[in-house]
Design goal:
Aminopeptidase, 4-stranded antiparallel β-sheet, 3-stranded antiparallel β-sheet, 5 helices, 7 strands, binds coenzyme A
C-alpha cells in the first residue's frame, strides 16, 4: 500500500473506470462481474460514466505498476439520475478496487482523497448508494458517510463537506 499513488483520472482512464464500474455494479463475489463493455451498454450503469470526463466530473486512479482502483464522482439532474441521487449540486461517487488488491487500505485512501478534492472544489456534500449487505458500507461510515434513505435493499448515504472543516 505504501507505494500506491493516487492521481487524477483522465479521458484515457475511461476503460479502466468502466471495468471498476462493473465491479461496483455487481459487487457480490458469487455473481459474475460485468465487463466494461457490458456495463456501458446497460443504461442502469452507463449513466455513471457515459461521456467521461463530462463537465464537473472528477476522479482518482490508484496505481502501482498499473491501475489498481478508482473512485470518481459526477453530478446528475432531477430528470436523469441514478440510485444515490440527493440533489443536483451533490455529486454521487462510485468506487472499486481490483479484486486481488482489496483490504489493503486502497479504497479508504481513494475515498479520503476524493472527499478532500470534493471539498476543495466547493461541493457541499457527496452521496452514494450501497447495498445494505455490502461490507463497503462500514468503510463509508468510517470516512463520515451517514445513511439517509433506504431504496429497496440499498441505502443512500451522504457525507456533508462541513464536517471536514
Ligand atoms: C469497497 C471497496 C472499494 C473497498 O476497497 P478496499 O481497498 O478493499 O478497502 P480498504 O482496504 O481501504 O478498507 C477495507 C474496509 O472496507 C470494508 N470492506 C469493504 N469490502 C469488504 C469486504 N468484501 N469484506 C470485508 N470488509 C469489506 C471493511 O470495513 C474493511 O475494513 P477492514 O479492512 O478494517 O476490515 C472494495 O472492497 C471493492 O472494490 N469492492 C467491490 C466493489 C464495490 O462494492 N464497490 C462499492 C459499491 S457501493
Amino acid at each position: 500500500m505504501k507505494d500506491v499513488r493516487c492521481r487524477p483520472a483522465g479521458v484515457e482512464d475511461f476503460t479502466f473506470l468502466a471495468t471498476m464500474l462493473g465491479e461496483a455494479a455487481v459487487w457480490r463475489p458469487d455473481k459474475p462481474t460485468p465487463t466494461a463493455d457490458q456495463v456501458l451498454t446497460d443504461p442502469r450503469y452507463a449513466m455513471y460514466l457515459a461521456g467521461w470526463p463530462r463537465r464537473g466530473d472528477y476522479g482518482l486512479v490508484a496505481e502501482q505498476g498499473g491501475p489498481v482502483g478508482a473512485a470518481w464522482y459526477r453530478t446528475y439532474t432531477e430528470m436523469s439520475h441514478g440510485y444515490g441521487f440527493v440533489a443536483e449540486d451533490v455529486p454521487e461517487l462510485s468506487i472499486a478496487v481490483i479484486a486481488s488488491r482489496r483490504h489493503e487500505g486502497i479504497g479508504r485512501r481513494l475515498l479520503i482523497d476524493l472527499i478532500e478534492a470534493s471539498v476543495a472544489q466547493g461541493h457541499p456534500a457527496l452521496s452514494l448508494s450501497v447495498n445494505g449487505d455490502n461490507p463497503a458500507r462500514g468503510l463509508y461510515e468510517a470516512v463520515g458517510f451517514q445513511p439517509v434513505e433506504e431504496h429497496g435493499s440499498s441505502w443512500t448515504m451522504i457525507r456533508q463537506a462541513a464536517q471536514s472543516n
